Each structure stands twice: as structure tokens, then as C-alpha cells.
Amino acid sequence: MLFTKTDIPGATLVDLEKFEDERGFFARGWCAREFAEHGLPDYVAQMNLSYNRSKHTLRGFHYQLAPHGEDKMLRCARGSLYDVLIDLRPESPTYKQHLAVELSAANRRMLVIPKGCANAFLTMEDDSEATYLVSEFYAPAAERGVRWNDSTFAVRWPVDEPAVISEKDRSWPDYAG
Question: I want to staple 10 with a disulfide (CB 3.0 to 4.6 A). Which of 18, 114, 137, 145 is the partner?
């Protein structure tokens, strides 16, 4: 695996190191030892799947409060996603800054989203699917969100308005942190 740090502390892009032959290729998509060597989460409590029927479906921004904060490792298994994380850690030098990346079945890239960061994605194709490796079990009482278009963060999405968004995600309040 090839690890690339981003400007957001702990947020890392992970690309496959492919071993190719006439059949195609083989690559490891996860290795606890290598993740630990790079200072990244090395424990997975659960794996989540998100299937999205329609292009321009928006999910998020979601995060969990401590002590239930989640490290997430997100990869697009089918289609493509415009993925955005927001750093909500007040002690971080990049507090309230965001990072946007393309994750797709074609690029097979993974984004590591550290605890204390909110995450959202917009599907760029019909029938897009995301797979998350998550370091903590879901704790409903610790769930929080940030509205996708909160002006505090000035995220520039590739569309003016999502085609599909849940009422819950549309209704998160303005960020008060």
C-alpha cells in the first residue's frame, strides 16, 4: 500500500500497490501492521456498506462524539464519490478546514478519516457503493452531524443541490463549535 499524508493531520490517502500479470492484479487493501507503522488506526470494529441508487445522492456530514469517536477508512467499491472531510478537532491546526477527494472504483483509493472529523460524500454516478472500515462500534447517542452546506466550512460541491438527501442530513443545525 502507498500512503500519502494530507494537510489535515491523520487524514491519509491509501493507494493500492498492485502486483499485475495476465490475470489482472493482486493488492492488499488493508493491513493492520502497515497502518500501525504509519500511525494510522489498526483496529476495525465493524465494516459498513452504503449503496446509493442515484447520481448526486449526498450522505453526511456524520461523526460521533468522544469517547465513541470513529476512525473511518472509506473506499468506493462501485461508481464514484466526491468525498469531503471536515476537521472538527478544536486542538487541530486545521480546525474547521476541509479536504475533498475523488474516490472511485477505478482509482481504488482509500481515505482515512480520523476521529474528530466529520465525513460526507456525494455520489457522482448511479449505483455507487462505499465500504467503510470503522474503528468503533456505532453509538446512536454519540451521533452528530453538520449540514452539507453550512457556510462555516465553505465546501464547494460539484453540484448546487444534491438530487437525493435524507431529511436528517438536510436538517443538521449550523455548526456551533
Answer: 114
Q: How confident is the model at residue 170 (pLDDT cuts 50, 70, 90)?
A: very high
The correct answer on CATH 3.40.630.30 for the domain covering 45-170 is no
Domain boundaries, the chain: 45-170
The residue whose grid cell reads 448511479 is 126
Phi and psi at residue 115, to the nearest 5° = -50, 140
DSSP state of 168: H
Helices (H) and strands (E) in the chain, counts: 2, 14
Nearest to 132 by CA among 71, 52, 75, 64: 75
DSSP state of 86: E
Burial of 12 (0-12, 13-18, 19+ CB in 10 A): buried
Q: How many Å from the N-terminal Cα to the C-terminal Cα in the chain?
A: 35
The 10s digit of each residue's pLDDT in 62-77 is 999 999 999 999 999 9
How many whole angstroms separate alpha carbon 75 and alpha carbon 72?
10
Residue numbers annotated as active site: 62, 132
What pTM did the predictor assign? 0.95
Q: What single-letter amino acid sits at 64? A: Q
